[in-house]
Specification:
Elements: H1 4-15, H2 55-73, H3 79-90, H4 103-111, H5 119-130, H6 141-147
């Protein structure tokens, strides 16, 4: 899969600089709490305008939540913790900073630091992720043009 992130990661590694992923929990989708029935506050939430948050895309992408949850359930981790722990395991200079407005979610996210994958676990989970075809673009309209240059 050819993703823009691959070029960014390669460049960061070549230059010896860190990388802070934007929205490492995919605007809360990877927490498993967003479904095709989720209602958003139109006054302060743009997710309904994003292709990846349309009900059909959420349903199609639910395989990612199933993968995270299956792995996490066997280890006492939430889907969000698995996603963050996996990201932290990629490179020591990748530093996800998930946003939250709730203290309990902050604590849950911080506990992801404590999980250490075995090489087999990390390899299998990465293989499982690579099989998933994500449905829906990240952005639409002018935003998509700016990001996908």
């Amino acid at each position: 899969m050819c993703l823009p992130e691959n070029d960014v990661i390669k460049t960061c590694e070549e230059l010896g600089i860190g990388f802070v992923p934007y929205s490492p929990l995919s605007r809360s989708f990877l927490s498993g709490y967003i479904t095709e029935h989720t209602k958003y506050n139109p006054a302060n939430d743009n997710r309904p305008s994003l292709p990846r948050y349309q009900p059909d895309a959420i349903k199609a992408n639910w395989v990612m939540i199933d993968t995270l949850t299956t792995f996490g359930n066997q280890r006492g981790l939430s889907a969000a913790q698995v996603a963050l722990a996996w990201l932290l395991a990629q490179k020591p200079w990748i530093v996800p900073i998930p946003g939250t407005t709730k203290l309990a979610q902050l604590q849950e996210n911080l506990w992801a630091i404590d999980y250490q994958f075995t090489p087999d676990e990390l390899g299998q989970l990465t293989t499982d992720f690579n099989k998933i075809k994500i449905v829906g673009e990240r952005y639409s309209g002018q935003s998509a043009k700016q990001v996908n240059k």
